[in-house]
């Protein structure tokens, strides 16, 4: 998830101060990617350095307000129109762990079972979060995405278990 582009998207609908960006980002994502305020201000600083946002003075309470620039709008438009490639995503640590377990002298079934239990707990937490969600369509779509990924991981773990059993019998 690009915090940088998430903040630009929020600023595209009007000037905001740092804490406000943090709250709106977390509300939009169902609090699945919590941001600390330092991360928000560090990102705003970099966006300002790159000419994508500009300080817009202060609000009535003296908080520094930021505004998206024309270059920021162009960057945001480029981001929305560019698909996310598999190579843009971080490496899949779970796939690496399973591969290393299969290749080494490790109880693969134990590794899979440990992950399956953790994924099931995460799936239950996400399902509860979805039921309790009040953040609108954006929050629902983020939670749906995470639920689908957890369900896919469960299916993939089933597949890993079946394949590793085949390996033992052959």
UniProtKB/TrEMBL annotation:
It comes from the Bacteria. Residues 91-163 form the Transcription regulator PadR C-terminal domain. Residues 7-78 form the Transcription regulator PadR N-terminal domain. PANTHER family: NEGATIVE TRANSCRIPTION REGULATOR PADR (PTHR43252:SF6), TRANSCRIPTIONAL REGULATOR YQJI (PTHR43252). This is PadR family transcriptional regulator. It comes from Nonomuraea helvata.
